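Reopening: structure tokens for the guanosine-5'-diphosphate complex, inputs below.
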Amino acid sequence: AEMFGQLTGGLEAAWSKLKGEEVLTKENIVEPMRDIRRALLEADVSLPVVRRFVQAVSDQAVGTGLIRGVKPDQQLVKIVHDELVKLMGGEVSELVFAKSKPTVILLAGLQGVGKTTVSAKLALYLKKLGKSCMLIAGDVYRPAAIDQLVILGNQVGVPVYAAGTAIKPAEIARQGLQEARQKNVDVVIMDTAGRLQIDKAMMDELKDVKRVLNPTEVLLVVDAMTGQEAAALVTTFNVEIGITGAILTKLDGDSRGGAALSVKEVSGKPIKLVGRGERMEDLEPFYPDRMAGRILG
Ligand code: GDP
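Re-run output (same inputs, fresh job):
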């Protein structure tokens, strides 16, 4: 609950105002709704998302009426919980595998978000599911990133296809894919170059790589610390290159939760996995209901 500490506290203020009430009414939910709105905004959830959320919760709260044995504050907790789950996409969004080998997963994202780390984490995650994997090092602008991927690949016991920095990422992708077919691996994961900001060169390069790989999954890696900006990024990448989902990293940091809560609603694309630490084991599916439970403390 560390990460959402502030949000959890803000929401608790809302329920506490309903102590001693018999039923939820239009009048007595005004203050709690204001608290919920404030708590979400402070957690860096984007404003349109907050508006829709608050509207949906208050509509239901007023229409709930008297439920035997359930106190109004508990009713509101339940309504908020269910709306949070819905907001985050409802069900867990599983990774999709291709009908014929190999499944190709293309990773994109800005520099420093944890893309290289995620590449290796994802390989380990899939290995544990019984899939053989291969990594392709496509960050040709940072030789250190290639070295890092080779080291991490070694660490998790997954081969890395690296071809240096002198050839274009799309060509590396083509060669890597060919090698993966020869090795008959189940899943190929390609790490790509990030930039500090979105620019046309990066998007063009990603489009070229995507054309060559014809990936089953195109996952945008986003840093949870960027708050509601994460949702805007997912939207932009989706419009530009077409993505299938996002991976949210650094959930172990002191992010306020806005990214986890806004991405699906703003971009229409689900968060599929989350990273919660620097260790290779720290990657897991994104479970909206567990996340909602964690937020509500
Ligand atoms: P890239 O530039 O996107 O490839 O980013 P890197 O994979 O090199 O990661 C940048 C930094 O973030 C490294 O120091 C990683 O150890 C760290 N990092 C990546 N994912 C996580 C995470 O989930 N939690 C934490 N705390 N640190 C992470």
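The CA atoms of residues 39 and 84 lie 13 Å apart. Residues 47-64 form the longest helix (18 residues). Marking as resolved unless the reporter disagrees.
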